[in-house]
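Weekly structure sync, notes
Attendees: PL (lead), two postdocs, one rotation student
Agenda item 3: pending single-chain targets
PL asked that the sequence for the first pending target be pasted directly into the notes so everyone works from the same version. It is reproduced below exactly as submitted, 745 residues in total.
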Amino acid sequence: MPHRLLAALTVLLSASLLANPPELTIERIFASPDLSGPTLRQAELSPTGDRVTFVRGRDQDRDLMDLWEYHIGDAETRRLLAADDVVAEEGELSAEEQARRERARIASLRGIVEYRWSADGRFLIFPLGGDIYVLDMSAEEREVRQVTASEDFDTDPKISPDGEHVAFVRNRNLMIASIAEGSEKALTEDGDEVIANGMAEFIAQEEMGRNTGYWWSPDSRHIAFLRIDESPIEPTLRYEIEAGSIRIIEQRYPFAGTPNVSYRLGVVNIDDGNTRWIDLGDNEDIYIPRVAWLPDGQRLSFQRQSRDQKTLELIKVDLAGGEQRVLLTETTETWINLHDDLHFLKNLPAFIWSSERDGFNHLYLYSTEGELLRQLTQGPWDVDALKGVDEEMGMVFFTAAEVSPLEKHLYRQSLITNSPENVTRITRRSGWHDVRMDSAARVFVNSYSSTEQPPQLSLHSADGERIAWLIENRVSGDHPYAPFRPGHRPTEFGQLVGPDEQILHYRIIRPADFQAGKRYPVFFHVYGGPTHRLATNSWSRRTLIDQYMARKGYVVFTLDNRGIVRQGRAFQDAAYLKLGRIEMIDQMVGMDWLRAQDFVDPERIGIFGWSYGGYLALMAAAQYPGEFAAAVSVAPVTDWALYDTHYTERYLGKPQAQPEVYEKANVLTYAHQLRDPQLLIHPMADDNVLFTHSTLLMQALQEQRIPFDLMTYPGEKHAIAGSGQRVHVHEMISRFLDRHLNPDQ
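Predicted structure, written out during the meeting:
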């Protein structure tokens, strides 16, 4: 075909798409190929620095993950392993693996969902179908070797630093296997229904950001591990309602105000199997959120958090003599946020630590004897996370909200300077930069997105120069979203002033075919929980749903209230002992602003939320009856006494000590005031926000003859991950809101 004719056809096709963009449907949003482009996870630089590896969903099956690489030398992206070439049929996951994936929010994924590098870059290790495999990257013909073959389910594999052994967990016991020979040895043998070795307990996974319970020593001779005893937690029965059956699960769920697991911290010698137990102190009612080795392998650190989460101690243990030293203590009148920013330097007797002690989260340098050497960063903005340390160049790298809470960027600072203000920003494009650096902090992989750009993956030198695109994901040509791009609605950001003069950030998407002088209904999308922001310049799993609602004729609005991270401690602390109230005061500031806009119909504002957002959607309708034309709550908390200890007590204290606080935070306290049209949705096998939260509300509303709509999902967990169910729940929400808000009016 002549180039001129091809160009003319391309122009005509583009013009046609601009004039008549295809309809964006819920079904298409969740179909394959993913409209956001390749589904990429866990991008890692190899220890030798020659490639970047990641797992990626298939074009025709977005949830089936394979292992891929970008080879830096030949600038090629290729698939290393197809999951079904290794294991044709994975089979059913163990109950513990299902729960672990639910905690990690990867319940819908299959195939190679996780992997790890060996320290020398020779092996890639991954679990699949309940067994453990290694990919030998040094062999001329890449070889996949099966390390374990058991009828039991093996999880959380890690290769020793010397590359000789794999540690893993089987039947709640810590095991090791020789990579060369495949021989296995149990390092613990007392795992049972209440004892677990090397595993992260429920609240560690769900609330503490810790998904493992063991750590190799740098010399590969020892493994530190947590032994948890769940017997202090009273067993309760949880009913998982499937489509054709009911499973009765006995679960030791740590409800707020009830006992937690008890801990023992051990160090086991992998040669003789002997375990040395570390003294954790006289008070057993504590949390052990983090454990880390010092570089010499002779000293170990652990963090001890008080039950009320107002005190956190970093403790160093000399294994040779058993001496302990508290290196630092963090205290607060509200709660302490956990982090992963502890980094022990190899060439200096010092470590990096982050703290919110000056009102914002910043980095500090300490000696290994606990002496504060200097504050590394400073200013009215929060550090998100430590990303890398280049000891040779004396540089520390971190991500932060310095530009705005709406964006995340990478920065560097000197380890030596006494000028915290001398911080250099590395990433420049406006948006959200999730960064992983190599161990020497010389290069980094950047996962970038914005409200206009789906996630892109690129490789950069430490100064920010782009070395290569790994996945450019440009929305053009045959990109799955390209036909829908002409109808993509821009996102606007703004600020409102809250009751205490705090800045409240919002984002808004105006509807398709927006006309001045016309009034539109509002899709008020809320979350509001302390750990997560919605009003950010990023592309997330909710982006396409918000775009769908805007194309249907809704104004889409989101506001981040007080209590949420990335705006300093004062912004967070306002929510202490006031969950469900302080957020709604701020959300109603957004409501008042919406009503004042000449393009908003104040009689057609509907609120929607999932999980904590579902809780706030209920609180909005119950505390402010008549204000909303409709409310949708998915998997909501209704009574905080039924939620777990670590999350709930962090913000509300114990129910025995603060009964009035729990009463004011309870949806059921205000349920009699509900009069707006209400859609309640809950998965019937939810092991996070238990189905009981909604059944209590159902009964309360029924007793008071208050009408509401209800949809339940048999067999589904908190995220409602079933392929058909994902489509159904969002179509259900859309139909309900359309019925009450009438976007076609």
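Discussion points:
- The longest strand covers residues 600-610.
- The first helix runs from residue 3 to 19.
Action: rotation student to compare against the earlier draft before next sync.
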